[in-house]
Design brief:
Structural class: alpha+beta
Strand order of the largest sheet: 1-2
Number of domains: 2
Largest sheet: 2 strands, antiparallel
Radius of gyration: 28 Å
Number of helices: 3
Distance between the termini: 76 Å
Number of strands: 6
Length: 129
């Protein structure tokens, strides 16, 4: 067996019963508390999805393991990732936005200036002093 196999806690996979109809491909038993705890751990780790593979060991025993498949990012994925990073950097600096990969200055003239309440409300203070 592969050393990196991560088994699913609380999930048991078995071959279909010998008298099961052809459309039954596997039998799965779930121990609710164990599987629930395992899934909560995955959720806390930031995983939104957990993909599983149903496999057959050399011994003939069926099992489920976490899929190790990782999609290679395409050029579009990498370009979009760079665009998002540029947007985040621009936002952290303030005063500009990234649209379509181009940096644009904000066109709202008062967005970057700060006025005190005294100027805006003509010296009126709230709550009254």
């Amino acid at each position: 067996m592969d050393k990196d196999i991560e088994f699913v806690k609380g999930l048991i996979v078995k071959a279909p019963h010998e008298r099961a109809p052809d459309f039954v491909k596997a039998s799965i038993a779930i121990k609710v508390d164990e599987l629930g705890m395992w899934l909560r751990e995955k959720h806390k780790a930031g995983q939104e999805w957990v993909n599983l593979d149903v496999k057959v060991a050399k011994s003939g025993k069926w099992y489920a393991s976490v899929s190790q498949y990782k999609k290679e990012p395409s050029e579009n994925d990498r370009a979009r990732g760079q665009e998002v990073q540029q947007e985040q950097r621009a936002r952290s600096k303030g005063g500009s936005s990234i649209v379509g990969g181009k940096e644009l200055e904000d066109d709202i003239p008062f967005a970057s200036c700060s006025l005190s309440a005294d100027v805006i409300f003509g010296g009126l203070r709230w709550p009254a002093e």
